[in-house]
Amino acid sequence: MSVSVIIPTYKPQEYLFNCLDSLCLQTLNKDQFEVIIVLNGPKNPYFDLIDSYIQTHFDIINIRTLYSDIPGVSNARNKGIDEALSKYITFIDDDDVVSKTFLEELLAKAHEDCLVISNVYGIDDTTGKAYEYLLSKEYKKIARIETPSFFTARRLLSPVWCKIIPQKVINGDRFPTDFALGEDSLFMFNISRRIKDIRITSPDAVYYVRHRNGSASRRHYSYWFRILLAFRTTFRYFFIYIRTPFSYNFPFFMTRIAATLRKLARKAYETE
Fold first, then answer.
1. What is the structure's pLDDT at 265?
2. Among the listed residues 197, 194, 195, 32, the one whose alpha carbon sits nearest the alpha carbon of residue 105
3. CA torsion, points 50, 52, 53, 54, in degrees to nearest 10?
4. Which of 127, 109, 126 minimizes the C-alpha distance to 118?
5. How far is residue 208's CA from residue 199's CA, in Å, rounded to a whole number?
6. Strand order in 119-124's β-sheet?
7. What is the secondary structure of 89-118 as a DSSP string?
């Protein structure tokens, strides 16, 4: 298989099966990708529900389920990376969906030291309608650039979804398990030292982000919580950078610090 799709899930709802339905519709041949669902936290009745879905879709898609009683999306993603069999990895959150050509277009431009990024849209959780938001506009900007840089693509480099990542780029790095917010950006910055090229898919390859009011990134946090988080995150960026400073893109490093400090003014923790 060429691509391992890692989906962490905790107490999954119907959203997860909508996500899996979108993967069943992929134009990429089923023999070229596997789906790894990592269920963490309570096992029952969720494991059985996922297994029932697999039993009725095994002829359409290759799915396997892993279980961990350790909560946390970072733990789940790390377990998925450890078990992935493919050359490339893509992460999908369990309440999001992707377009039919998502995997095929990502894989078509993939290379062992290259990051490929797809188009992004939001989905309104109430109406189900897709709409443009910050990352949608960022995609449009960099899609016009022949060779996007770390600086021009900086906002789309924050989340781990909407892209395909070579195993060679991830190497031995894993998600920080001591962060419940901002872990995506820290992980992406950490592995950026091995990324030599950034490519963009056509607008038809879309990652749809479901915006839910109850999600961690939409929840409001106290000012002192944001102060502490900004201090810890900034310190971690510096710690990662000073280990091998010449391996990282310095302007990109500075944008991570700036983005972290800007979040102090916001009650909700949005991807940037």
1. 67
2. 32
3. 90
4. 109
5. 19
6. 97-98, 206-211, 119-124, 130-131
7. EEE--TT-EE-TTHHHHHHHT--TTEEEE-
pLDDT band at 223 (very low <50, low <70, confident <90, very high): confident
Q: What are the CA-CA distances from residue 204 to residues 7, 127, 139, 254 (Å)? A: 22, 22, 12, 32
Burial letters 166-178, b for 16+ CB under 10 A, else e: beebbeeebbbee
Nearest to residue 53, comparing CAs of 190, 45, 82? 45
Q: C-alpha 87: how far from its chain's center?
A: 17
Whether 49 contacts 123, CB under 8 Å: no
pLDDT of residue 225: 86
Q: 10-43: per-residue pLDDT in tens?
A: 999 999 999 999 999 999 999 999 999 999 989 9
Phi-psi sector, 187: left (phi>0), alpha (psi -120 to 50), beta? alpha
263, 269 in Cβ contact below 8 A? yes
18, two tokens: 């909508």
Q: pLDDT per residue over 101-119, tens digit each?
A: 999 999 999 999 999 999 9
Residue 240 and residue 213: Cα distance in Å, rounded? Answer: 32
Report the first-to-last Cα separation within the chain, whole angstroms.
Answer: 32
Q: Is the pTM of this model over 0.85?
A: yes
